[in-house]
Amino acid sequence: VQEFMTFTSQLIVDRSHIGSRAAVKEQDYLCHVCIRNDSLSGVAIADSEYPSRVCFSLLDKVLDDFGKQVDRIEWPTGSPEVIRYAGLEAHLARYQNPREADPMSKVQAELDETKVILHNTMESLLERGEKLDDLVSKSEVLGTQSKAFYKTARKQNSCCEIM
């Protein structure tokens, strides 16, 4: 898996332009690449369900942090064994849940929850409205029947006199 990730990452970086961002589908994964104008690049490999915007946000933060901690002279020649960058684990741990790591995803999740609640409320209001319509139609029927009963009762009582 490590060899696949390394090979795919190098291939995508080599085929991408400086100052670009791209998401490339490889098997069941999306490979997100971000190459800054200073040629520093990063690749994040995630499943297709992980939001691309959050991946690019992670890459931006990691590249900025890496650029501050590691001397620029070491970028092209350094290897993972030589360059010590301690911030990666913290960033990866923070971005495990995209909703908590990204404020926009968190807002979107809250909007989705609110939308579900509103749909349920609207459905219950519509059901209540249907029940009210049923009650109105039943009350109209009862009104009509009570008028008919009243007329019938008046006709029957008109032939007799009360003394």
UniProtKB/TrEMBL annotation:
<dbReference type="InterPro" id="IPR045848">
    <property type="entry name" value="R-SNARE_YKT6"/>
</dbReference>
<comment type="similarity">
    <text>Belongs to the synaptobrevin family.</text>
</comment>
<dbReference type="Pfam" id="PF00957">
    <property type="entry name" value="Synaptobrevin"/>
</dbReference>
<keyword id="KW-0472">Membrane</keyword>
<keyword id="KW-0564">Palmitate</keyword>
<keyword id="KW-0653">Protein transport</keyword>
<keyword id="KW-0488">Methylation</keyword>
<dbReference type="Pfam" id="PF13774">
    <property type="entry name" value="Longin"/>
</dbReference>
<dbReference type="GO" id="GO:0005484">
    <property type="term" value="F:SNAP receptor activity"/>
</dbReference>
<dbReference type="GO" id="GO:0015031">
    <property type="term" value="P:protein transport"/>
</dbReference>
<keyword id="KW-0813">Transport</keyword>
<dbReference type="GO" id="GO:0000139">
    <property type="term" value="C:Golgi membrane"/>
</dbReference>
<comment type="function">
    <text>Vesicular soluble NSF attachment protein receptor (v-SNARE) mediating vesicle docking and fusion to a specific acceptor cellular compartment. Functions in endoplasmic reticulum to Golgi transport; as part of a SNARE complex composed of GOSR1, GOSR2 and STX5. Functions in early/recycling endosome to TGN transport; as part of a SNARE complex composed of BET1L, GOSR1 and STX5. Has a S-palmitoyl transferase activity.</text>
</comment>
<dbReference type="InterPro" id="IPR042855">
    <property type="entry name" value="V_SNARE_CC"/>
</dbReference>
<keyword id="KW-0175">Coiled coil</keyword>
<protein>
    <recommendedName>
        <fullName>V-SNARE coiled-coil homology domain-containing protein</fullName>
    </recommendedName>
</protein>
<keyword id="KW-0449">Lipoprotein</keyword>
<keyword id="KW-0636">Prenylation</keyword>
<feature type="domain" description="V-SNARE coiled-coil homology">
    <location>
        <begin position="103"/>
        <end position="163"/>
    </location>
</feature>
<dbReference type="InterPro" id="IPR011012">
    <property type="entry name" value="Longin-like_dom_sf"/>
</dbReference>
<dbReference type="GO" id="GO:0006888">
    <property type="term" value="P:endoplasmic reticulum to Golgi vesicle-mediated transport"/>
</dbReference>
<dbReference type="GO" id="GO:0030659">
    <property type="term" value="C:cytoplasmic vesicle membrane"/>
</dbReference>
<feature type="domain" description="Longin">
    <location>
        <begin position="1"/>
        <end position="80"/>
    </location>
</feature>
<dbReference type="InterPro" id="IPR010908">
    <property type="entry name" value="Longin_dom"/>
</dbReference>
